[in-house]
Design brief:
The complex is a heterodimer of chains A (281) and B (297). Chain A has 15 helices and no strands. In chain B, helix 5 crosses helix 9, helix 7 packs across helix 9 and helix 9 runs antiparallel to helix 12. The chains are: A mainly alpha (281), B mainly alpha (297). Chains A and B meet through helix 1, helix 2, helix 5, helix 6 and helix 7 of A and helix 2, helix 6, helix 7, helix 9 and helix 11 of B.
């Protein structure tokens, strides 16, 4: 344990530490807390310049009610309809690819693996023009499907890296034992390897959910308008609609950020396991 | 006589399993990279006939485009200052690496900015910096400074955006280090302590070497994040004021899909340059991973 465990220091140090924690947290989250406070103020506070004083009234329910009755829920629904299929698709593809790269020895294995990793690091802009054209040609421009297909393909890079390393760490004897028994290879995947991958599946799903939910670039490149845009892109038109109505814009931003936050707090263990895979050896 | 598949199962199966992933990845990632290189040699508005102009886009970029130079310089600033997330994350991780009541909740709440989308982070910080009602000016006002319009001032704007980006990135590095610290060997620390090491010396000679895997990942994700910066710039300043906060990724988007007409060829040329810059780092990362793979064998 580093630095020195606090239990071993004097009572005074311990108390100072415990007092510092909430102060540090408050400072760390200050920009966000400010927005949360804005979101429960009435409109009139912003016109009279009462930004930091006591609110002239509490408008929690009316502010958030207005957001719920705007186009915001529509965008949030779009986000779900984009995110969930992407998670399923990318996880499915990368399970299979990770299995192939993690279990089998064949020529080009490492090369393919590195190709997936490298692809995952490229700047989005190098893909932008051709992918936009491809999506237009497929007739999928401004559809959720178009966005989902791209996301699946792109996330496959990262997911394969993740899955392959996870499968590599599994005991290979299990596969060998199954082969000796004469079990078909696809059955080994389905009945031997896949059940052992549950923690990886959970970790990867939460992670990809957050990544895709928070995507903005591809949302503006491949979609426009209410019927396909996810909430990250939709929030700009929401803000244009409620221009300078900071109490509503704050409430809207907080609602837009909510699903991945909820996901994180519910699945915290998996989320962090996914993010830090490889951070320890 | 067994069927051909039964005899060749072990050779064929991996390719069958790889097929969907390779197909999707080739179609949407590998092939488009080649296409972008090709498009960068043309003058093309995205709709009509493309006109081959050779290296003319690159010539113009490198010799006669002030906005490109500004973007490139800003990319350099991002690369340098974004890396501050690593020591900052380490610092917070060390601060939180204790066992007291409620510490797990503190850790989650410190990590929390990373989970929020960059768009919301951008909005939150735009309001944070706002000269009339922003918390930032309220805070520096207490000590008699300001008000400063960070995002409206070309000298500060880029740094303001980078600071906003550091918020989630520091949280990310923090969680990497917290996990790393969990795995630090307590016996080595005890041994070092008996040898009289403490404080910074202990950190530098005993702890940091053990945190190397975490540092490497933090470095990779921070570099990639710095070069990918787009969302924050787009939402906070939209490249302004006077184009002073553009970076290559944003400038490329602006050129290709701006309201003043699409310049896909020119945009693709910018993308190629960004890609080549990234390629230097990608090559280094892959080389490091290759070394690890060789050891693992």
């Amino acid at each position: 344990m580093f630095p020195k465990p606090i239990e071993k220091s004097t009572r005074a140090t311990q108390l100072t530490y415990q007092g510092l924690l909430p102060i540090a947290l408050l400072l760390w989250l200050a920009p966000l807390i400010a927005v949360a406070l804005f979101s429960i103020r009435p409109d009139v506070d912003f016109t009279t310049g009462n930004y930091w004083g006591w609110p002239s009234s509490w408008e929690f329910s009316s502010n958030y009610w207005q957001v719920v009755n705007s186009s915001m829920p529509r965008y949030i629904l779009n986000s779900f309809l984009i995110t969930v299929p992407t998670v399923i698709g990318a996880v499915a593809l990368s399970c299979m690819a990770g299995f192939a790269l993690g279990i089998y020895k064949f020529r080009g294995n490492l090369l393919l693996f590195f190709l997936f990793i490298a692809g995952n690091f490229v700047p989005f802009q190098i893909l932008m023009v051709p992918v936009r054209d491809l999506t237009l040609d497929l007739g999928l421009y401004n559809t959720k499907t178009g966005l989902v297909l791209f996301h699946i393909a792109f996330q496959t890079g990262f997911c394969t890296l993740f899955m392959r390393n996870f499968i590599r760490a599994l005991p290979f004897e299990l596969v060998e034992a199954a082969r000796v028994e004469g079990v078909a290879e696809w059955r080994i995947f389905w009945y031997v390897v896949l059940p052992l991958m549950k923690p990886a599946l959970a970790a990867l799903s939460v992670l990809i959910f957050t990544f895709i939910w928070n995507d903005y670039f591809w949302a503006v490149v491949l979609t426009q308008g209410e019927n396909a845009q996810p909430v990250t892109a939709g929030i700009t038109s929401f803000n244009a609609q409620f221009r300078a109505m900071y109490h509503l814009m704050s409430a809207g931003s907080l609602i837009a950020a909510l699903p991945p936050v909820a996901m994180f707090f519910l699945m915290q263990k998996h989320f962090i396991a996914g993010l830090t895979l490889g951070a320890v050896k | 006589m067994k069927s051909w598949y039964a005899r060749n199962q072990i050779a064929v199966t991996p390719w069958l399993f790889l097929l969907p992933a390779i197909a999707m990845f080739a179609l949407y990632v590998v092939y488009p990279i080649g296409q972008s290189f090709n498009i960068s040699l043309y003058k093309w508005d995205g709709l009509g006939e493309a006109e081959f102009i050779g290296m003319a886009n690159y010539e113009k970029l490198l010799t006669d485009d002030k906005a490109f130079n500004v973007s490139l310089l800003n990319n350099a600033k991002w690369l340098v200052f974004y890396l501050l997330a690593i020591p900052a994350g380490l610092f917070i991780a060390l601060f939180l690496n204790q066992t007291v009541w409620g510490i797990r909740l503190y850790k989650s709440l410190f990590f929390f900015p990373f989970v929020i989308s960059q768009i919301v982070v951008g909005l939150v910080f735009t309001w944070f910096y706002d000269p009339t009602f922003g918390l930032f000016n309220a805070m520096i006002g207490v000590v008699g400074l300001g008000p400063v319009n960070i995002l409206g001032d070309p000298t500060f704007a880029t740094y303001g955006i980078i600071a906003a980006g550091l918020w989630p990135q520091t949280a990310y590095c923090m969680i990497l280090y917290l996990t790393g610290l969990n795995a630090v060997d307590p016996e080595q620390i005890e041994a070092a302590r008996l040898d009289g090491a403490k404080g910074l010396k202990m950190l530098w000679f005993v702890i940091l070497p053990q945190l190397r895997p975490a540092t490497f990942i933090a470095f990779v994700v921070t570099i990639i994040g710095a070069l990918r910066s787009f969302d924050l710039i787009s939402i906070m300043t939209n490249g302004g004021p006077f184009g002073s906060t553009r970076v290559l990724s944003f400038y490329m988007f602006e050129k290709s899909l701006s309201e003043y007409g699409f310049r896909m060829g020119y945009g693709a040329a910018i993308a190629v340059i960004l890609f080549l810059i990234m390629l230097v780092f990608i090559a280094y990362f892959l080389w490091r991973m290759y070394q690890d793979e060789k050891e693992a064998r």
